[in-house]
Amino acid sequence: MSDLIETRLVTLDAHLGSTSTDVIKYLAQQITQAGRATSAAELAEHALAREAKTATGVPGGIAIPHCRSAAVTVPTLAMARLGTPVDFGAKDGPADLVFFIAAPEGADKEHLKLLSKLARALVKKPFTAALRAARSNEEIVALVSEVLSDAPAAPAAPAAAAPAATARPMIVAVTACPTGIAHTYMAADSLAQAAEELGIDFAVETQGSSGSKPLDPALIAQADAVIFAVDVDVRDQSRFAGKPVIQVPVKRGVDEPEKLLKDALAAAKDPAARKVPAGNETASERSTDSASEGFGAGLKRALLTGVSYMIPFVAGGGLLIALGFLLGGYAITDVADQYLTENTLFNLPEAGLLAYLGAVAFKIGGLSMGFLVPALGGYIAYAYADRPGIAPGFTAGAVAGFMGAGFIGGIVGGVIAGLACRWINSWTVPRWLRGLMPVVIVPLLGSIIASGLMFLFLGGPIAQLTEALNGWLAGMSGTAAAILGLILGLMMAIDLGGPINKVAYSFAVAGLGAGSVAENPAPLMIMAAVMAAGMVPPLAMALATAVSPKLFTGAERENGKAAWLLGAAFISEGAIPFAAADPLRVIPASMVGAGITGSLIMSFQAISQAPHGGIFVFFAMDNTWPMFLLATLIGTLVSAALVIVLKKFVRKAPVGAVDPAKVAA
Predict the structure, then answer these.
(1) Which residues are listed as membrane-spanning (predicted)?
(2) DSSP 216-236
(3) 121 with 169, same domain?
């Protein structure tokens, strides 16, 4: 445990800036200077990304920024007692005690347990009082080491007993946060302490990084209600089926434990209270009960879910089709079925082994691509209704494909299936029928509603719309094509992997199924434009750091070396460290180059049959790959030149910089 914190990782009574970003960047730099991380910028980026999901301020003037990062080489605690408290999002005001918990991506369970113990100790007032009274770095290290040695592994759970043995109410809980290091355990301890004060029997299951011990089924059976204080799905939720449930973000378990317990007791007495479903319909339940998620937000989430699950079918299928062309030539489209039905490895066609293997690759790819629309519809429905929605969504997507309604039909069918299944799942049914709902009733009725509407009313008009859209794309040329490429390129660079970037990428991927090299190359051109434009920002930052290294920090120069490979592989996020540190110069420069590249791709009529991979899938670009590379190079040069000019002539202090004079102890 002594290797988690040392005296040089402690800063006492210093002013580290006015924002949580300032403090996190300072502590990340401190950890890196101690040789415990390879990049302060990358570590700060990961901690700030975690901070953006859930603020890490907790009651009592405490903040626990934390993350797992590949930049961390040794599990580490860095502590600051701030001379000027800083707001970390706690309801009771700014924090003066800040612990930065930095864990490697593959941290072992023993270290994660120690980090979790520290987080739990910070909800105990005697420990925080001792931290505020300490007069030296050595005293802080001793206090932390003592807590890590003595803190209990988990809140004590009451022993299972017969329900009649006590009149006290019984509540069980599950706590979980995305990283599973801090909030998971702090919420568990806060709830346990509040339950003791309220006279409630209580047991909690912490689904965190340092391991999870499932609750005793006997305790669950006795429980009057359950609390899910989680930011992620509860594992094996069906164990709690039929119990009244209060589900909230994990931070509320830290901030409002007493209120949650009282809400749970009230739910236990309310016959109309929400119950844990018999299946694992977590997404359905969340979207039904989330008053904050309107139709638009739900539709966006569902579309992104559908596209994310669809991409593996498209990626594998597109690359295999391209490989089939590489091995068997473009005539393979006409003879693949014949080769596979009439020939074998021991009875090769006249064209030889390569042609036969090309037919195999082409056919596998084609079959994989055939799942594009059904998978899109199925997982859109899944986003709305969880597992009971998958079969109706897949079926509606298959109907859309059968009727020629394409990916638009798949989207419409998936949305209808998901909403129908969610509605059916909300019905109040007898207990004997409840077990059949997720496996029989919901899929059956959902399929009838969604596919029936597609066949009877919607499929035909959507097919006509799809045909018109394909005709427009096929006939697009000149200025119209260049403008579309420009818009897609700008969208790819404006937020570097964010929602706008994902919209452009989803549009390109969804159109792949309608494109072909011979008949309608426009969707393949759009895919190439999106991929090339997405490569420009990281490649431009890599080039700029190589050409003008003095304009960048040491961490940025290191990130620039990695950005070469990230950009070449079409990983736009390789430019995020640069954009996070200097958004007003990096993002506009990236957008200009990416927009130019997207426009050039459409003008050059370069294509890509693969949805990802960058230059490493050149064989999926037919003979247009030289034009693809040229367009990418031009955009990279433009963006790199612009960012260098802006950094030279539009100067400003680095974001989050801390005056060394202000951090003297």
Answers:
(1) 309-333, 353-382, 394-420, 440-460, 472-494, 525-547, 562-580, 587-607, 627-646
(2) PHHHHHH-SEEEEEESSPPTT
(3) no
Number of domains in the chain: 4
Is residue 214 over pLDDT 60? yes
Per the prediction, the chain carries an average pLDDT of 82
Judged by DSSP in three states, 493 sits in helix
Report yes or no on 155 lying in a domain: no
pLDDT of residue 519: 67
What pLDDT sits at residue 112?
62
Domain shared by 466 and 433, yes or no: yes
CA angle, 265 then 271 then 277, to 5°: 90
* 660 in a structural domain: no
pLDDT at 165 over 50: no
Helix (H) or strand (E) holding 357: helix 353-369
Residue 260 lies in a domain: yes
* CB-CB contact of 636 with 593 (8 Å): yes
Average pLDDT over residues 440-447: 94
Q: Do residue 186 and residue 53 come from a single domain? A: no
Point out the least confidently predicted range of 20-29, 96-105, 113-122, 521-530: 113-122
Considering the domain boundaries, does residue 661 fall inside one?
no
Instruction: Pick the more confident residue, 516 or 196.
Output: 196
593 close to 536: Cβ distance less than 8 angstroms:
yes
Active site residue 177: yes
| Tokens 């022993």, located at residue | 159
The residue among 211, 148, 156 whose CA lies nearest residue 180 is: 211
Give per-residue pLDDT as tens, 561-586. 888 988 888 878 778 778 877 888 89
**Residue 612 annotated in active site:** no
Residues 434 and 446 in one domain: yes
State whether 115 and 171 are in the same domain. no
Last residue of a domain, one of 443, 474, 505: 474
Largest CA distance in the chain: 87
pLDDT value, residue 497? 65
Q: Is the pLDDT of residue 439 over 80?
A: yes
Cα–Cα nearest to 37, from 70, 10, 86, 67: 70
pLDDT tens digits, one per residue of 426-435: 888 887 787 7
CATH of the domain at 14: 3.40.930.10
> Rounded CA gap, 10 and 287, in Å?
44
Cβ(184)–Cβ(234) under 8 Å?
no
My answer on whether 325 and 431 are in the same domain is yes
CB 247 within 8 A of CB 224: no
Higher pLDDT, 421 or 433: 421
Encoded tokens for 447? 């399929």
Active-site position among 177, 183, 421, 612: 177
Q: Are both 509 and 376 inside the same structural domain? A: no
What's the Cα-to-Cα distance from 245 to each of 201, 269, 367, rounded to whole Å? 16, 12, 43
Other beta carbons within 10 Å of 605: 15
Per-residue confidence (pLDDT) for residue 186, from 0 to 100 = 75
**Could you tell me if 502 and 616 lie in one domain?**
yes
Among candidate residues 474, 509, 544, the one where a domain is terminated: 474
Buried b (16+ CB within 10 A) or exposed e, 143-153: bbeebbeebee
Name which of 132-146, 463-477, 540-554, 600-614 the model is least confident about. 463-477
Cα separation, 309 vs 196, in Å, equals 44
